Amino acid sequence: MRQVSQRRKIALFLITASLIVGLALGVYGVNRALNDWLVASNVNNALAQITPAVASSGRTQEFDALIQKRNAELQPQKAPSKAGTAQDPTLGMRLSSPRTKEAVSQQAAKEPVTTQDPTPAPSAILSASLSGALAPSLIDSIFVAGKNDLRSGKDLTEDLANFVKTSGLPEGLMRQTLSDLPNGTRPFTLLYKNWSGLLDTRSFVIVPHIVDGELDGALIMVADHEPQIASLEMITKIIGYITAILCLASFLIAGLLLWIRFRDQVKTTRDIEFLAHHDPLTGLPNRAVFSARLTEALRLVHAKASNMGVMLIDVDKFKEVNDTHGHGTGDIFLQVIADRLRSVFSDHLVARLSGDEFAVMIKSVSDVARLTKLASDLIAATKEPCIIDGKELRISLSIGIARASDGSWRSSRLLHCADLALYRAKLSGRSQFAWYTAEMDSDAQKRKEIEEGLTKALRLDQFEVLFQPQYSLIDNKLKAYESLIRWEHPTKGQISPEVFIPVAEESGLIEAIGDWVLFSACKEAAKWEDDNLRVAVNVSAAQFSPGITELKVAQALQESGLHPSRLEIEITESLLIANTDAVVETLNHIRSMGVSIAMDDFGTGYSSLSYLSRFPFDKIKIDRSFIKNLGKDTGTDAIVTSIIGLGRSLDVTITAEGVENQEQVTLLRAAGCTLVQGYLFGRPDTVKAHETHRARWSEHSSIPEPLKRLEVSDPTDVPEPASSQAAEQLQSTEPEPDPASRPRGSATAR
């Protein structure tokens, strides 16, 4: 990449230098071409004035006489010169000194132009007329040429050759001038350029003499155009300067455009390079940079036999922040967290790996105590309020720590271990940190096996729906069943919902499992003989999808044939926290079908009352954590009484969960509770098993046995017939779970 960039810079420099040189040569060439064109134009204009000037001076007859005389001299009968006879090197006429038109006129008035040989020569008046027409160009010498002197393609006559030699101009110029001489009446000259490409200041000017339409002779003059060139120098300089300025301006503009483009390209390249190695939102290094630096650091650890640590940091409930306050607030929230991380880990590499996951590589600190101190400092830094747009948001971070203690560690392994520790921190209650231990690998393997087993269980229909009864304290009758899922693994036996439901939620299988429970419960309830019994189905926040859940409920009712009034959907307030408006709209659609909506685990959240005002629930279920301490704590008694009173004032049915002894039944009945549910009235089982128990109770009374007893301390103390005890042994042998350990919002874990 760097070599390509270096080559581009060299190429750009060469192109720029070439443009500059080309610009300079172009300006010079334009200037020279313009100067040559102006000189040629002025000379041609001057040549056009020769014939009128001769005519106006009355020297036409003299011109004719000179040509006739020269032609007579060139007749064949004239004896040729003897070999070796020296000729005067100044054949023709040379104007000795005049350099301007005025000087020529003064010279002509004083004395005639002299010649040093018998060759015909023009008079001073004719010479002055010719000089005046060519002004400001000067005439150095004049040669009267006859018809034979002007023959092209052959050797020059001796007189003409001597004249050319005396002029100092090349003989080839004379030959080319004669060959290019047009068959017309206009004077003619041929300007030529020397070896350097510059226009020579001197040339041969031929004034033809035409007789009967044929060239009969001519005056050949050696003209010096230097004064002509000098007179045009200022004009050419000005035009050259203007051209140079325009070219320079064009070059500067082009250079500016190139610079702007190059600057934008450099900026774009830098931005692309930055984005390739950094997170655009927080400005922190990304996963690729972190992985590369981590690999390099592990090599150094192996070489130096030292230690290093890695922390994986996850933002707890970040989705709720996005759903509740919007993605714009969520982005600012992440930026605030990134700043907190920089402040705590200022000497270490901090990176953002994904949406709400960060990582820290710690090389300078390797002992457990100092790493623990850094993690504690980060937890403490999250306690500082985070206020965005006037709203205070709580920062909660879960941290997983892993340490590489020898050279056998690889970056992928170290990150995996830190991720296992992060998972343990989240399970332990969030907003805390956890160290990696070897046993976490076995736990992760178990979770993987459970996830694979859940996929297979869905495909092979290994799940089972059990039901727990709900009795009325008003008429002591069975009113409904709550559906609960159980999983009988073919090799590991029954697996508790407390084990597989969290795995299902994390893996995304909870939606498919929840749909299976909904459809199965509706089909089962449609087969019950008592059409008044209702069935309750839990829907967790992980499986609830606004706009989709109501369609699934409608489909389940249609396929099963169950009347909508017999179906009850239970949700928790955690569902309402995320995207409340969309959830409320979906719940309204479900309620409009005739399906009842119940709020499960009421009282465990911080905003349960506010949700009661936003949506008219049909039922409120008091969480088992309150029922457990009922009759033992006055505060709990007051809370339960208040919830029941609130339900009665809102005309909402109140159900108490986790009822396990007769004292709780007595207190709930006295407080006005509507329905009760718990192990005292039956564990999750098939409807057929519950009907068998009810049939045994009905042998003595139509009222369920637990509702008749005055006080029973434990459901296991309830006396039952021997046949009932034998039947109880046939029921599920799963251990009674700790009620407090049931995951909140689970669709099936009870």
Describe this protein's structure.
The protein has 750 residues and is of the alpha/beta class. Helix content is 50%, strand content 16%. The protein contains 26 helices and 21 strands. The strands form 4 sheets. An 8-stranded mixed β-barrel has the order 13-14-16-17-18-19-20-21, surrounded by 4 helices. Strands 1-2-5-4-3 form a 5-stranded antiparallel beta sheet, sandwiched between helices. It has a 5-stranded mixed beta sheet with strand order 7-8-6-11-12, with helices on both faces. Helix 4 packs antiparallel against helix 5, helix 14 packs across helix 15 and helix 17 packs parallel to helix 19. The C terminus is likely disordered.
Key terms:
26 helices, alpha/beta, 21 strands, five-stranded antiparallel sheet, eight-stranded mixed β-barrel, disordered C terminus, 50% helix, 750 residues
Q: What is the percentage of strand-forming residues? A: 15-25%
Distance between the termini: 60 Å
The whole-number mean of residue pLDDT values reads 79
Radius of gyration, in angstroms, nearest whole number? 57 Å
**Fraction of residues in helices?**
40-55%
- Counting helices, strands and paired strands, the structural category is alpha/beta
Strand order of the largest sheet: 13-14-16-17-18-19-20-21
Number of strands: 21
User: If helices are DSSP runs of H or I spanning 4 or more residues, what is the number of helices?
Assistant: 26
Shape: rod-shaped
As residue ranges, the low-confidence spans are 77-117, 709-749
Main sheet properties: 8 strands, mixed, barrel
